[in-house]
Amino acid sequence: MHKNRIDRLIKKMKENNLAHLIISDPYAIFYLLDIKIEPGERALALYLHKDGDLKLLINELFPQDKDIAADLIWYNDVEDGIEKLSKYIKEDEVIGIDKFWPAKFLLRLQEIFPDKKYINGSDIVDAVRRVKDEEEKNLMRESSAINDAVMEEIIPWVIKGLNEKELSAKLKEIYKAHGVEEVSFEPITAYGRSAADPHHSTDDTCGKLGNCVVLDIGGMYKNYASDMTRTVFIGEASERAREIYEIVKEANLRGIAAAKPGNKMSDVDKAARSYIEEKGYGKYFTHRTGHSIGLECHEAGDVSSVNDSEIEVGQIFSVEPGIYLLDEGIGVRIEDLVLITEDGCEVLNKVSKDLKIVQA
């Protein structure tokens, strides 16, 4: 159990006048209890009361071989697990339910307690998870350092004649050599016109002279995700491609400069986006500027024009502006992760962002 995280969650519950909370998200349960359970169709629920009472509803199909710092409520496939859980829920009227709990379980609880008020409690859990503790910060640094090393190793392979699928497979081999068994998302290894599609699905395209190559990669290390994008060029880069690259690089740097406590997440988006717009390419920057990251590659709290939440010390999120000119076959994205510090941010990725032409 991570007592400090539970204490922070209880504090946040009290600030929001919420007496009790049901959490079903396996990532959030792992975050709090340090146990991994993927329940599938079965009910899994962590019940937390503001007085510190902590109970875990768990199916007998998931036996645990270590102590869990919560009272366990066991049930089997012929029992009504929600009814069992209900016997421990206290009298307070309002109950927070996270957004991941299947409706069939929530509806059953509503049948049992028709007079209670049910609200979305996910914002409270997300707010606590968003601010990383020292253990998490160090794990994210380690994960990103490995990602840097992997990026440096994969870049030379863009000129080895591999198609996109083969390049992705090579990337996964490199991850395994660094002790990373699982990617944090399906990587994007895109040549030329494919690079101008922000979420291109890897195919059999091969690289050609002058192509830009978008490498959007990340792995899982000790349960924490990395994520980074670099764009390189095969053999040469046209003046047009160089222009686009330098605009995206400057937008990335401006976004990072705005990533500091007291600013809003929307300020980071504005800093990057307004520069691209100033240069006349606003309509070609077609996605948000970033996303929060930690146990999951994409966590709650994005870097967008509509997220006006204030940036807090300990947050980690990406800054990844891009310009995509599909008709010209030019796509450039540059992405770094930033850890918010007292006076700004620490950039977790160290791979150079200077324009790179990969030569045979």
From TrEMBL:
Pfam families from the UniProt entry: Creatinase_N, Peptidase_M24
Domain Peptidase M24: from-to ranges: 139-342
Enzyme class: hydrolase
EC number(s) from the headed UniProt entry: 3.4.13.9
Keywords, sorted A to Z: Dipeptidase, Hydrolase, Protease
Any GO MF annotation of the entry: proline dipeptidase activity
UniProt domain Creatinase N-terminal: residue ranges: 5-131
Matching InterPro entries: Creatin/AminoP/Spt16_N, Creatinase/aminopeptidase-like, Creatinase_N, Pept_M24, Peptidase_M24B
Protein name per the record: Xaa-Pro dipeptidase
Organism: Peptoniphilus gorbachii
Higher taxonomy: Bacteria, Bacillati, Bacillota, Tissierellia, Tissierellales
